[in-house]
Amino acid sequence: MILPIVAYGDPVLRKEAKEISAEYPNLQDLIANMFETMYSASGVGIAAPQVGLAIRLFVIDASPFAEDEELTDKEREVLTDFKKVFINAKILEETGDEWGFSEGCLSIPDIREDVFRPETVKIEYYDENFNKHVEEYDGLAARVIQHEYDHIEGILFTDKLSSLKKRLLKGKLANISKGKVKIDYRMRFPDAKKAR
Protein backbone atom coordinates (compact mmCIF):
# COMPACT_ATOMS: atom_id res chain seq x y z
CA MET A 1 0.00 0.00 0.00
CA ILE A 2 1.33 3.42 -0.95
CA LEU A 3 1.43 5.73 2.07
CA PRO A 4 1.28 9.54 1.91
CA ILE A 5 4.72 11.08 2.42
CA VAL A 6 4.86 13.70 5.17
CA ALA A 7 5.90 17.13 3.87
CA TYR A 8 8.39 19.59 5.28
CA GLY A 9 6.96 21.43 8.27
CA ASP A 10 5.29 18.43 9.91
CA PRO A 11 6.50 18.08 13.53
CA VAL A 12 7.09 14.32 13.12
CA LEU A 13 10.09 15.12 10.90
CA ARG A 14 11.73 16.91 13.84
CA LYS A 15 11.27 14.19 16.46
CA GLU A 16 14.06 11.91 17.57
CA ALA A 17 12.56 8.53 16.72
CA LYS A 18 12.08 5.72 19.26
CA GLU A 19 13.52 2.21 19.06
CA ILE A 20 11.13 -0.64 18.31
CA SER A 21 11.07 -4.34 19.15
CA ALA A 22 10.50 -7.36 16.91
CA GLU A 23 6.90 -7.34 18.21
CA TYR A 24 6.13 -3.95 16.64
CA PRO A 25 2.61 -4.34 15.17
CA ASN A 26 2.47 -5.26 11.46
CA LEU A 27 6.19 -4.55 11.02
CA GLN A 28 6.61 -6.64 7.85
CA ASP A 29 3.60 -4.92 6.25
CA LEU A 30 5.00 -1.51 7.21
CA ILE A 31 8.37 -2.38 5.64
CA ALA A 32 6.67 -3.57 2.43
CA ASN A 33 4.53 -0.40 2.34
CA MET A 34 7.58 1.81 2.85
CA PHE A 35 9.39 0.17 -0.09
CA GLU A 36 6.27 0.52 -2.25
CA THR A 37 5.87 4.18 -1.23
CA MET A 38 9.55 4.89 -1.94
CA TYR A 39 9.43 3.24 -5.38
CA SER A 40 6.20 5.06 -6.34
CA ALA A 41 7.96 8.37 -5.58
CA SER A 42 11.20 7.32 -7.39
CA GLY A 43 13.22 7.54 -4.18
CA VAL A 44 16.27 5.55 -3.08
CA GLY A 45 15.47 5.68 0.63
CA ILE A 46 12.65 6.52 3.03
CA ALA A 47 12.50 6.71 6.81
CA ALA A 48 9.50 5.98 9.05
CA PRO A 49 9.10 9.65 10.10
CA GLN A 50 8.47 10.42 6.42
CA VAL A 51 5.33 8.26 6.59
CA GLY A 52 4.31 9.79 9.93
CA LEU A 53 5.87 7.30 12.38
CA ALA A 54 8.53 8.45 14.86
CA ILE A 55 10.26 5.06 15.01
CA ARG A 56 13.87 4.08 14.20
CA LEU A 57 13.26 2.39 10.87
CA PHE A 58 14.39 3.24 7.35
CA VAL A 59 14.65 1.36 4.07
CA ILE A 60 17.05 1.88 1.19
CA ASP A 61 17.33 0.64 -2.37
CA ALA A 62 20.30 2.48 -3.87
CA SER A 63 20.51 0.28 -6.98
CA PRO A 64 19.48 3.18 -9.31
CA PHE A 65 22.82 4.83 -8.44
CA ALA A 66 24.66 1.78 -9.83
CA GLU A 67 23.94 3.10 -13.35
CA ASP A 68 26.11 6.19 -12.76
CA GLU A 69 28.97 6.05 -15.25
CA GLU A 70 31.36 7.92 -12.94
CA LEU A 71 31.39 5.11 -10.35
CA THR A 72 34.28 2.75 -9.81
CA ASP A 73 33.64 -0.96 -10.38
CA LYS A 74 33.74 -1.50 -6.60
CA GLU A 75 31.13 1.22 -5.96
CA ARG A 76 28.91 -0.14 -8.74
CA GLU A 77 29.15 -3.65 -7.26
CA VAL A 78 28.08 -2.40 -3.80
CA LEU A 79 25.16 -0.36 -5.14
CA THR A 80 23.81 -2.90 -7.66
CA ASP A 81 21.99 -4.96 -5.03
CA PHE A 82 21.94 -2.43 -2.21
CA LYS A 83 18.43 -3.03 -0.86
CA LYS A 84 18.30 -3.03 2.94
CA VAL A 85 16.12 -2.49 5.98
CA PHE A 86 17.64 -0.65 8.96
CA ILE A 87 15.94 -0.99 12.36
CA ASN A 88 17.20 0.74 15.54
CA ALA A 89 20.28 1.93 13.64
CA LYS A 90 23.18 3.62 15.43
CA ILE A 91 26.03 5.26 13.55
CA LEU A 92 29.17 4.19 15.39
CA GLU A 93 31.68 6.20 13.38
CA GLU A 94 31.90 8.63 10.46
CA THR A 95 35.36 9.00 8.93
CA GLY A 96 37.13 10.29 5.85
CA ASP A 97 37.04 13.58 4.03
CA GLU A 98 33.72 15.37 3.68
CA TRP A 99 32.51 15.49 0.09
CA GLY A 100 29.63 17.28 -1.57
CA PHE A 101 26.77 15.70 -3.47
CA SER A 102 23.45 17.13 -4.65
CA GLU A 103 20.82 15.70 -2.30
CA GLY A 104 17.05 15.82 -2.44
CA CYS A 105 14.34 14.47 -0.17
CA LEU A 106 10.87 13.04 -0.79
CA SER A 107 9.55 15.21 2.08
CA ILE A 108 11.09 18.33 0.48
CA PRO A 109 10.18 18.03 -3.22
CA ASP A 110 11.73 20.24 -5.91
CA ILE A 111 14.73 21.24 -3.79
CA ARG A 112 18.20 19.81 -4.40
CA GLU A 113 21.33 21.18 -2.77
CA ASP A 114 24.95 20.14 -2.28
CA VAL A 115 25.41 18.56 1.14
CA PHE A 116 28.83 17.69 2.58
CA ARG A 117 29.16 14.43 4.52
CA PRO A 118 32.06 12.22 5.68
CA GLU A 119 33.02 9.56 3.15
CA THR A 120 32.71 6.46 5.36
CA VAL A 121 30.14 5.33 7.89
CA LYS A 122 30.19 2.44 10.36
CA ILE A 123 26.68 1.48 11.43
CA GLU A 124 25.03 -1.00 13.78
CA TYR A 125 21.46 -2.03 12.97
CA TYR A 126 18.93 -4.83 12.91
CA ASP A 127 17.50 -6.16 9.64
CA GLU A 128 13.84 -7.03 9.01
CA ASN A 129 14.33 -10.39 10.81
CA PHE A 130 15.95 -8.64 13.79
CA ASN A 131 19.40 -10.03 13.03
CA LYS A 132 22.07 -7.61 14.26
CA HIS A 133 24.71 -6.26 11.86
CA VAL A 134 27.73 -3.97 12.17
CA GLU A 135 28.87 -2.82 8.73
CA GLU A 136 30.98 -0.15 7.08
CA TYR A 137 30.03 1.68 3.89
CA ASP A 138 31.58 4.46 1.85
CA GLY A 139 30.71 6.65 -1.10
CA LEU A 140 27.09 6.86 -2.21
CA ALA A 141 25.97 3.94 -0.04
CA ALA A 142 27.28 5.77 3.05
CA ARG A 143 25.62 9.00 1.92
CA VAL A 144 22.16 7.43 1.50
CA ILE A 145 22.51 5.78 4.92
CA GLN A 146 23.58 9.10 6.52
CA HIS A 147 20.66 10.95 4.90
CA GLU A 148 18.07 8.41 6.10
CA TYR A 149 19.72 8.11 9.52
CA ASP A 150 19.37 11.88 9.93
CA HIS A 151 15.59 11.44 9.51
CA ILE A 152 15.35 9.17 12.56
CA GLU A 153 17.36 11.78 14.50
CA GLY A 154 14.94 14.57 13.49
CA ILE A 155 17.44 16.17 11.09
CA LEU A 156 16.74 17.22 7.48
CA PHE A 157 19.33 17.77 4.74
CA THR A 158 18.38 21.46 4.64
CA ASP A 159 19.72 21.76 8.21
CA LYS A 160 23.21 21.12 6.83
CA LEU A 161 23.12 24.08 4.45
CA SER A 162 24.71 27.49 5.02
CA SER A 163 22.58 30.19 6.66
CA LEU A 164 22.54 32.06 3.32
CA LYS A 165 21.20 28.99 1.46
CA LYS A 166 18.58 28.48 4.19
CA ARG A 167 17.41 32.08 3.81
CA LEU A 168 17.20 31.70 0.03
CA LEU A 169 15.08 28.55 0.40
CA LYS A 170 12.78 29.89 3.13
CA GLY A 171 9.93 30.80 0.75
CA LYS A 172 10.11 27.50 -1.15
CA LEU A 173 10.07 25.54 2.11
CA ALA A 174 7.05 27.52 3.37
CA ASN A 175 5.23 26.74 0.11
CA ILE A 176 5.98 23.02 0.49
CA SER A 177 4.46 22.96 3.98
CA LYS A 178 1.33 24.66 2.57
CA GLY A 179 1.02 22.15 -0.27
CA LYS A 180 1.96 24.70 -2.95
CA VAL A 181 4.21 22.33 -4.89
CA LYS A 182 3.84 20.15 -7.98
CA ILE A 183 4.38 16.49 -7.16
CA ASP A 184 3.45 13.18 -8.73
CA TYR A 185 3.17 11.15 -5.51
CA ARG A 186 0.90 11.21 -2.46
CA MET A 187 1.86 13.72 0.23
CA ARG A 188 0.45 14.97 3.52
CA PHE A 189 0.95 18.69 4.12
CA PRO A 190 0.94 20.14 7.64
CA ASP A 191 -0.49 23.54 6.71
CA ALA A 192 -2.84 22.44 3.94
CA LYS A 193 -4.76 20.03 6.22
CA LYS A 194 -5.16 17.53 3.40
CA ALA A 195 -3.26 14.86 1.53
CA ARG A 196 -2.86 15.07 -2.24
Automatic annotation (TrEMBL):
Binds 1 Fe(2+) ion. Pfam families: Pep_deformylase. Keywords: Hydrolase, Iron, Metal-binding, Protein biosynthesis. The active site is at E148. It comes from the Bacteria. CDD domains: Pep_deformylase. Its cofactor is Fe(2+). InterPro entries: Peptide_deformylase, Peptide_deformylase_sf. It catalyses: N-terminal N-formyl-L-methionyl-[peptide] + H2O = N-terminal L-methionyl-[peptide] + formate. Fe cation binds at C105, H147, H151. Its EC number is 3.5.1.88. Belongs to the polypeptide deformylase family. Removes the formyl group from the N-terminal Met of newly synthesized proteins. Requires at least a dipeptide for an efficient rate of reaction. N-terminal L-methionine is a prerequisite for activity but the enzyme has broad specificity at other positions. This is Peptide deformylase. It comes from Neptunitalea lumnitzerae. The lineage of its organism: Bacteria, Pseudomonadati, Bacteroidota, Flavobacteriia, Flavobacteriales.
